[in-house]
Amino acid sequence: MKLQTLKYAVDGRIARVTLNRPDRLNAIDDRMPGEIRRAVEAANEDDRVHVIVLSGAGRAFCAGYDLKVFAEKKGRRNAVIQAMPWDPMKDYRVMRRWTDDFFSLWRSYKPVICKVHGYAVAGGSDIALCADLVVMAENARIGYMPARVWGCPTTAMWVYRIGAEKAKRMLLTGDTIDGKTAKAWGLVHDAVPAKKLDAAVDALAARMAGVPKNQLMMQKLMINQAYDNMGLANTQMIATLFDGITRHSPEGLWFKQYAEAHGFHEAVRWRDSGRPIPEGGQAS
Question: What is the pLDDT of residues 181-201, one digit of tens each?
Fold first, then answer.
């Protein structure tokens, strides 16, 4: 495989997939989702592989979509922002494809462990929560800040992992939580000191890698079916449609224009500060 945003390697019975845009904190560009799917497909087709470990190079797992590319440049129309009036189905086709790319982790016949250090935020949390098991550094942060403006988590895994009340606590504020809290809430499998993160993930992967591939596949399919029965696919369809709406609502267009005028980081500073988002797209 020729990969531009990932590294892929097989180590015994373990396939290691590493997000590899460290200079951008592994932010998601328009190539990364499809490359994640390709890596997962390669691991599933490789008879040596029993378990997949997903991680990020550099200082973080993933800081979300590379919105500096998508939001900041003046007048730029791209995959996630259209001229008005916008076509919601065109937007849906793009975002649903990326959602399905991320969800290849969940649909993988071989189990996926996600190792989180630094940040797994915004779209990065979408990716992490598609894994079967997530192990975080205690000081790492996870959350979906674009819930405040310009985003809706398309994989919709928050409610399925922590229930309605805690999912609302996260998505009605856009706050982040650390690894210790994520473990206490049941959002992730484990949280360990950052220095012990590699060892903890390797030990878990080695334990699972000793199980026959057919056993791993059957257990995963059986458990995933319960989520399918709860309506996961329909929830994702609604979430993906809503994500497109958030980027083309009056407030979403305000965020884009503010990023164009003042830079993406200033727009994010406003978004994450708790300062009220201007309603109707008019800044006070």
Answer: 999 999 999 999 999 999 999
What is the chain's length?
A: 284
Tell me which H or E stretch contains 58.
none
Sign for the pseudo-dihedral over CA of 151, 153, 158, 160: positive
User: Does the pLDDT of residue 143 top 90, yes or no?
Assistant: yes
At a CB cut-off of 8 Å and minimum separation 6, what does 95 contact? 80, 154, 240, 243, 244
Q: What is the maximum alpha-carbon separation in the chain? A: 61
CA atoms within 13 Å, Cβ hemisphere of 132: 22
Strand intervals (E) in 6-46: 6-11, 14-19
Closest CA to 36 of 49, 18, 50: 18
Whether 56 and 17 have beta carbons less than 8 Å apart is answered as no
State residue 85's pLDDT score.
87
pLDDT in tens, 41-56: 999 999 999 999 999 9
Measure the N-to-C terminal CA separation of the chain; round to a whole number of Å: 50
Q: Structure tokens of 22?
A: 């460290």
- Please report which residue ranges of 46-130 form alpha helices under DSSP H: 67-71, 88-107, 123-128
DSSP 8-class letter at 195: G
Calpha distance 161→276 (Å, rounded)? 29
**Cα gap 40→174, rounded to integer Å:** 30
- Residue 221 has, within 13 A of its CA and on its CB side, a CA count of 7
pLDDT of residue 73: 65
Cβ atoms of residues 158 and 135 within 8 Å? no
Angle of helix 264-273 relative to helix 250-262, nearest 10 degrees, comes to 130
